[in-house]
Design a protein that fits this description.
Layout: E1 4-7, H1 14-19, H2 22-29, E2 34-36, E3 43-47, H3 51-61, E4 70-72, H4 88-97, E5 102-107, E6 123-127, H5 132-141, E7 145-146, H6 161-168, E8 174-177, E9 188-191, E10 198-201, H7 207-214, E11 218-219, H8 221-226, E12 246-249, H9 253-265, E13 270-274, E14 286-289, H10 296-311, E15 317-320, H11 329-339, E16 344-345
Parallel strand pairs: 1-8, 2-8, 4-6, 5-9, 10-11, 12-15, 12-16, 13-14, 13-15
Antiparallel strand pairs: 2-3, 3-7, 4-7, 5-6, 9-10
This protein binds threonylcarbamoyladenylate and magnesium ion.
Threonylcarbamoyladenylate is lined by residues 38, 40-41, 43, 67-70, 101, 103, 105, 121, 123-125, 129, 147-149, 186-187, 189, 200-201.
């Protein structure tokens, strides 16, 4: 399959630029799959009402069919068609954070969306992305669009069109290049079907921001478990993983350098995942600064690029710094722990 690629040209008039990808909207309406930018990561979109379109998404990604997709909408009014009810907490959260990196779980109204999109569950995940290209594309189709991150399953999520191209060229009908995404980690997934909202996946909207608006918010206990390092991580944790094994180091820069030196003595090629503040300190084969520790949002926005960087090198092993788990650090640590297969070491 030939993958068409369009660029959104910010230097020309908005209307002219958007007309370039009306073809992308037409492909979506014809139940083809198209990747597009959102404010978090690139998504791989398909008509959520159509079995064929949704099957194409799973096929292109190589995604297990029991993992449900997020439905993307451009207007709140689209919800009533496929959501059973909108709880009060959800109303407040939508009002405050949509469009934005917040996905809400609702009870599903049956018979509208493809069962493949919701993996046969009785609930559905929905979000309204805060990106002009995504919103314009969604409006042009008028459809609820199912869109997981546009990476091959298991790989880091794509934050540039080139990442999508690397993973999916030849496997999807189209790609709209809208430049690099901003937030860099995926949306926060919050279950709103119970009395108290539950964070199922930390992301771009922090727990602190949610609490400010709705009061008590619980973090899914399964997430807390994940942050402890199991002795032998199962395959289910291989997500976002770079090709070389990543070890997170609980300790100082000196501790990390100590591990690097050890591996150098064994003759291995060694990478270090750090931040701008510490970049000059390390002596290793590859030292990659992922944003600024003092500004965690910059770490979030370059995290996946950093993980993909090591795949372009011959690094045999990577050592990474850890981050505080508050604010957007919650999402950063959640993704890093998965990328590291929960391997945390200390001296
Ligand atoms: O920022 C994002 O959310 C990006 C962009 C493209 O919008 N999308 C994204 O989709 O990250 P994906 O498919 O990579 O992750 C969707 C997550 C998965 O963890 C899935 O299990 C969860 O949402 N999910 C979907 N439907 C659910 C449901 N009904 N109940 C619980 N979790 C659900
Ligand atoms: Mg994903």
């Amino acid at each position: 399959m030939i993958t068409k690629r369009w660029s959104v040209d910010n230097s020309v008039d908005k209307e002219d630029s958007y007309s370039q990808f009306s073809q992308a909207a037409d492909l979506l309406k014809n139940n083809e799959v198209v990747a597009f930018p959102t404010e978090t990561v690139y998504g791989l979109g398909g008509n959520a009402k159509n079995d064929e379109a949704v099957r194409k998404i799973f096929e292109a990604k190589g995604r297990p069919s029991d993992n449900p997709l997020i439905i993307h909408i451009a207007e709140k009014g689209q919800l009533d068609a496929f959501v059973a009810e909108i709880p009060q907490n959800a109303l407040v959260l939508m009002e405050r954070f949509w469009p934005g990196p917040l996905t809400l779980i609702f009870n599903l109204k049956d018979g509208v969306l493809s069962h493949y999109a919701t993996a046969g569950l009785s609930t559905v995940a929905v979000r309204m992305p805060d990106h002009p290209v995504a919103l314009e594309l969604l409006k042009k189709t008028g459809l609820p669009i199912a869109a997981p991150s546009a990476n091959r399953s298991g790989k880091p999520s794509p934050t540039t069109a080139d990442h999508v191209w690397e993973d999916l060229n030849g496997r999807i009908a189209g790609l709209v290049d809208g430049g690099p995404t901003g937030v860099g980690v995926e949306s926060t997934v919050v279950d709103c079907t119970g009395e108290v909202p539950v964070i199922l996946r930390p992301g771009g909207i922090t727990r602190e921001q949610l609490t400010e608006v709705v009061g008590e918010v619980i973090v899914d206990p399964a997430l807390a478990d994940e942050s402890q390092a199991p002795k032998s991580p199962g395959m289910k944790y291989r997500h976002y993983a770079p090709d070389a094994p990543l070890y997170l180091v609980e300790g100082t820069k000196e501790d990390i350098q100590h591990f690097v030196d050890d591996k150098k003595r064994e003759g291995l090629s060694v990478g270090v995942l750090t931040t701008l503040e510490n970049k000059e300190f390390y002596c290793a084969d590859y030292v990659y600064a992922c944003g600024q520790r003092e500004k965690l949002e910059t770490v979030a926005s370059s995290l996946y690029e950093a993980l993909r960087f090591f795949n372009t090198t011959d690094a045999d092993i990577i050592f990474g710094e850890m981050f505080p788990g508050e604010g957007v650090g919650h999402a950063i640590m959640n993704r890093l722990m998965k990328a590291a297969g929960h391997r945390v070491i200390s001296r």
